[in-house]
């Protein structure tokens, strides 16, 4: 169950990063509320996953899901620039996440 909690926490990190961008510096109420709720839920699920997973593994995978997911949302939804270097960086993060998962005892 820890991996499920962690995956959902990572997805919620993408949600709060996107909604934070949409909040326009917390000047728009709806996106600001989504940001706060998604952040709280993401942190809560991360903490539940840490009951069974090592700190380094859980935190690295949580931030990695958020980083790569926010990159993808930025490119696909917000029309942000996509270059070979940015794609290579995202691929390297994903490779690191896979290695961390494979190295995890849990």
Give a verbal description of the structure.
It is a single chain. Helix content is 79%, strand content 0%. With 106 residues, the protein is mainly alpha-helical. It has one domain. The N and C termini lie close together (11 Å). The model has no long low-confidence stretch (mean pLDDT 95).
Topology:
Layout: H1 2-22, H2 29-49, H3 55-76, H4 84-103
Helix pairs in contact: 1-2, 1-3, 3-4
Element-by-element helix/strand order? HHHH
Number of strands: 0
Strand content: under 5%
What is the end-to-end distance? 11 Å
Helix/strand class: mainly alpha
Helix percent reads over 70%
Q: What average pLDDT do the residues reach?
A: 95
- Report the uncertain regions: none
Count of discrete structural domains: 1
Radius of gyration: 15 Å
Query: What's the helix count?
Result: 4
For the sheet with most strands, the description reads: none
User: How would you sum up the global shape?
Assistant: flat
Which tags fit this structure?
106 residues; 79% helix; cell membrane; single chain; EmrE-like; Small_multidrug_res; mainly alpha
């Amino acid at each position: 169950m820890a991996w499920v909690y962690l995956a959902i926490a990572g997805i919620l990190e993408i949600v709060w990063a996107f909604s934070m961008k949409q909040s326009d510096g917390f000047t728009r109420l709806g996106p600001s509320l989504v940001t706060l709720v998604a952040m709280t839920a993401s942190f809560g699920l991360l903490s539940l996953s840490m009951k069974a997973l090592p700190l380094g593994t859980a935190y690295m995978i949580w931030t990695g899901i958020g980083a790569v997911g926010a990159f993808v949302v930025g490119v696909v939804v917000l029309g942000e620039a996509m270059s070979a270097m940015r794609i290579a960086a995202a691929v390297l993060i994903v490779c690191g996440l896979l290695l961390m998962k494979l190295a995890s005892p849990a």
